[in-house]
Amino acid sequence: MTEKDDFDLRNFMPFLLNLAAEQSSLGFQRTYKNRYGMLRTEWRVLFHLGNYGEMTAKEIGERAVMHKTKISRAVAKLSQRRYLTRTRDEHDRRSERLTLTPAGLVVYRELRQEAEAYETQLGKQFTAGEVVLLRMMLRRLAGLD
Amino acid sequence: MTEKDDFDLRNFMPFLLNLAAEQSSLGFQRTYKNRYGMLRTEWRVLFHLGNYGEMTAKEIGERAVMHKTKISRAVAKLSQRRYLTRTRDEHDRRSERLTLTPAGLVVYRELRQEAEAYETQLGKQFTAGEVVLLRMMLRRLAGLD
DNA sequence: GAATAATAGTTGATTTTGTAACTAACAAGA
DNA sequence: TCTTGTTAGTTACAAAATCAACTATTATTC
């Protein structure tokens, strides 16, 4: 019995997913990186705060599935740029409640608009039904839902 | 006219794709990283050589969509572990023809089997038709085809 | 209410990646 | 042939991610 040889790396899901993720991130990266000098970790934190309102670092970490050290450093940078403020939670003084400043909110809104436009652009490659299905599958693979 | 607020980060393609890619890579990563002490760049190079036979670094870079520095370092490590041999191409002495050693081939076969099993596992979450469609869409997003 | 364990977040050391500059070899045109 | 340009691959340095250890605070247990 000979070894089967129909394995194609380019069909291997983890490979394909990583490649698709990388490629589809490039365009948007140009916006937040080149134009706003931000890292991926930073816009993700910014987006969470803009999107869901006041949160703690821990909550962001859970939603964004990001390690706490990444969050800590992203928060530090955003705070330094006066995009967010940190206030100790008086019920649990270990954690801080993070909120966007007006300046942070402005940047969030600008970036969100870019994100929406970018998303629309990406979607043009597919039918509406395909996009829905794709999202559904990705969410399942991502372990969301 | 008020700002629309139906933007959900968890539906944003670059975000979802990255998350799905990360999550779906974790299981396989445990195999090549913990059990074989390899990096993602290294198994990718190994897989290309095992899959397509003798190649140059440049060819691998094109197929795998990896930067030449990553390849260079991965090749150095694999060579150091005696998983591959490098021989100067006499027609173009700038490049080297890379080939797996018997030891490298063994590891490739083991890892490929793991990859196939892992892929099957991942696929169980979807119907066969969904998998085909998902691959198709990912390839398009990845800029392949 | 001490003592111990657990949690939120930070910091430092190490590893990995990204960027740019570099070497060596080939290619093309004058 | 000599200059200029291009390409394959490496190396050095900077940026970023990972991992472990740490501080401060809260929760638990005896």
What is the element string of chain A, with H for helices and E for strands? HHHHEEHH
CATH class of chain A: Mainly Alpha
**Overall shape of chain A:** globular
CATH architecture of chain A: Orthogonal Bundle
| Largest beta-sheet details of chain A | 2 strands, antiparallel
What is the subunit arrangement here? homodimer
- CATH names the topology of chain A as Arc Repressor Mutant, subunit A
- Average pLDDT confidence of chain A is 93
Helix count of chain A?
A: 6
Strand order of the largest sheet of chain A: 1-2
Distance between the termini of chain A: 43 Å
- Amount of helix of chain A: 55-70%
Indicate the topology.
2 copies of one chain form a homodimer.
Chain A: H1 13-35, H2 40-52, H3 57-64, H4 68-80, E1 84-88, E2 96-100, H5 102-123, H6 128-142
Antiparallel strand pairs in A: 1-2
Helix pairs in contact in A: 1-5, 2-4, 2-5, 3-4
The structure holds a DNA duplex (30 and 30 nucleotides).
Structural commentary:
- The structure is a homodimer of 145-residue chains.
- In chain A, helix 2 (40-52) packs across helix 5.
- Chain A starts with 12 loop residues before the first helix and ends with a helix.
- Chain A is globular and about 60 Å long.
- Chain A is built from six helices and two strands, in the order ααααββαα.
- Chain A has one domain (24-142): Orthogonal Bundle (Arc Repressor Mutant, subunit A), CATH 1.10.10.
- A two-stranded antiparallel ribbon of chain A has the order 1-2.
- Chain A is mainly alpha-helical.
- The first copy, chain A, is 65% helix and 7% strand.
- At the A-B interface, helix 1, helix 2, helix 5 and helix 6 of A face helix 1, helix 2, helix 5 and helix 6 of B.
- Chain A binds a DNA duplex (30 and 30 nucleotides) through residues 39, 41, 56-58, 67-73, 75-76, 92-96.
